Amino acid sequence: MGKEMAAQKAREVKEEIRQFVGQLRQKVYPEGHPEWGTSFSDIEELGVQIGDAVAREFTEQSVAGQAEAAAEREHRCPRCGGPVEARDPEPRPLLTRRGEIAWQEPQAYCGECRKAFFPSVAEFRHSG
């Protein structure tokens, strides 16, 4: 993605965030704004909590999509180069800078080597 396109996407996302925040603010503050006298630190703390929740959800959805895409690809065993059989994903909690998220890590099994492999491991390679 070029710089121009990335800048345009950033502007679009920023506008969507602005609209989303307006909707959230309306849910949190029925009058559309905090009651007079609400401290700045209370307003900021709520904003931080909401921001962290958005960051966790964004990360969780992104890694889930990445894992689904990896599971659909054909992989080869890093040891013998033979085909591997897809297995059920392994639940893995991940600790991010914004808190813990759930992740289903894809895995595969090589019958020849009798070993499970995880596509998230760098040595697990894509076969073409």
The first-to-last residue Cα distance is 23 Å
- Strand proportion: 15-25%
Query: What is the element string, with H for helices and E for strands?
Result: HHEEEEE
Secondary structural class: alpha+beta
SSE map:
Elements: H1 3-28, H2 40-72, E1 75-76, E2 85-96, E3 99-110, E4 115-117, E5 125-126
Antiparallel strand pairs: 1-5, 2-3, 3-4
Give a description of the structure.
The structure is a single chain. This protein has helices at 3-28, 40-72, and strands at 75-76, 85-96, 99-110, 115-117, 125-126. By secondary structure, it is an alpha+beta fold. It has one domain (34-126). It has a 3-stranded antiparallel beta sheet, covered by helices on one side. The longest helix is centred in the middle third of the chain and has 33 residues, at 40-72. The protein is elongated. The two termini are 23 Å apart.
Which features would summarize this protein structure in a list?
5 strands, alpha+beta, 2 helices, disordered C terminus, 128 residues, two-stranded antiparallel ribbon
Brief write-up:
By secondary structure, the chain is α+β, with helices and mostly antiparallel strands. It has helices spanning 3-28, 40-72; strands at 75-76, 85-96, 99-110, 115-117, 125-126.
